[in-house]
Amino acid sequence: MATRETQKLILDTAIELFNEHGTKAISTNRIADDCGLSRGNLHYHFRSKEEIIQTIFQRIDMEMNESWYEDHSTHTLAHANYMFERQMDLCWRFRFFYRELIALLQNDARLKILFLDSRHKRVREVKDYIVGLIENDLMVHPRLPITLDSLLLSSWLVTDQWLPHLDMYDISASDENAISEGAVLILNIFRPFFTEKALAELEEMDTASN
Amino acid sequence: MATRETQKLILDTAIELFNEHGTKAISTNRIADDCGLSRGNLHYHFRSKEEIIQTIFQRIDMEMNESWYEDHSTHTLAHANYMFERQMDLCWRFRFFYRELIALLQNDARLKILFLDSRHKRVREVKDYIVGLIENDLMVHPRLPITLDSLLLSSWLVTDQWLPHLDMYDISASDENAISEGAVLILNIFRPFFTEKALAELEEMDTASN
Fold it and tell me: Which H helix or E strand runs over B68?
């Protein structure tokens, strides 16, 4: 196999094992075995489990960047809703990462830097997106003491916590409703600031999907 | 020492050590050593680390129940704000528990039952409290698709996630502002539904505290 294919196989296998069993229970040897690779071969590509997790996070980050490229000029509520659902879906596909987020960042200074860089960038981008909704008369600017930043912060906290919340109640997020319920929860944080024009657009969306 | 005093010493010491180092790094032997007790004496009171953590959670739950007894008839926004701050303060004092919440519940079925029982009760109580605010003309009932349940769920998710969020940015929640900022974030989730009467009450609060 070419280097690129081998690395993809290792990462795909690691994601599957981590999602199923958590990162603590899975050694690099187990990943090599499941890939049908020698342990030496795996270590040639990735020196440690930390490096595998960092590379997986870079994949998450790249996926977010690629989608943002399509997003940043599409200021409709249908698209906002799609963005929230897409983010929840990403959290589900890489669920080990979001489940163990705090512990992973505490244990790996480099991962923490990668994550915070990415998060700062995303927070700015989503803020720009919301400002775009305001400029397109779909949302009004909240009045103090509510700020755009406080709405955005709440929406990130709810997004990060949604999967652990489902876990707690033994609800599987493979259930499609679970993802869309999370997205509705996020949309509802912004909803009090939607204009009549926006609400009419949303009603049309609901009618179309029924 | 009387049994009760010894148990209190063990729990207080365990909370301090868990908050500082996490539950994984602290053995029951370490707790015994820090208490100046023999290991056998500690095991006479608590058979395992799990039992210590369960007993600490029962203390958390009892504290929440006691405060609720004062709350349930005080329907003012000043009191609502105080309740949110008090909950954040409790999350800070028992921060190991909220930091490790998902992992702790995954590893201990009995703790999970204790926690979910307590959470269900609290969710109902806070919902009753919010209904009281509506009945006292301080808040309007949200209109579909926003529901009281969705507001309450968002507020719990933000509350649970606030400390891990501070951790991530290396902000200490011992900083008093950090707690009150968290409480403002929670209050802001409900704020779009506050009445003019409520907003006037809040303005008075702000003037009084400046």
Answer: helix B49-71
Q: Where in chain B is the domain with CATH 1.10.10.60?
A: 1-47
CATH 1.10.357.10-classified regions of chain B? 50-209
Minimum-distance CB partner of A161 among B161, B184, B193: B161
**Which amino acid is present at B130?**
I
Q: Which fold has domain A1-47?
A: Arc Repressor Mutant, subunit A (1.10.10)
Q: Given an 8 Å threshold on Cβ–Cβ distance, is A154 in contact with B189?
A: yes
pLDDT in tens, A181-199: 888 899 999 999 999 999 8
**Which residue in the set A158, A169, A193 is minimally distant from B154, CB to CB?**
A158
**Predicted model pTM:** 0.86
Asked if the Cβ–Cβ distance from A116 to B168 is below 8 Å, we say yes
pLDDT tens per residue, range A104-133: 998 899 999 999 999 999 999 999 999 999
A window 138-157, beta carbon within 8 A of B? 145-146, 150-151, 153-154, 157
CATH of span A50-209:
1.10.357.10
Out of B105, B154, B191, closest to residue A146 by CB: B191
Chain A nearest-CA residue for B186: A154
What is the sign, positive or negative, of the torsion defined by CA atoms of B3, B5, B8, B9? negative
Shortest distance, CA A195 to any CA of chain B (angstroms): 14
Of the residues A166, A188, A199, A202, the best mutation for testing chain B's interface (the one with the most B CB atoms within 10 Å of its CB) is A188
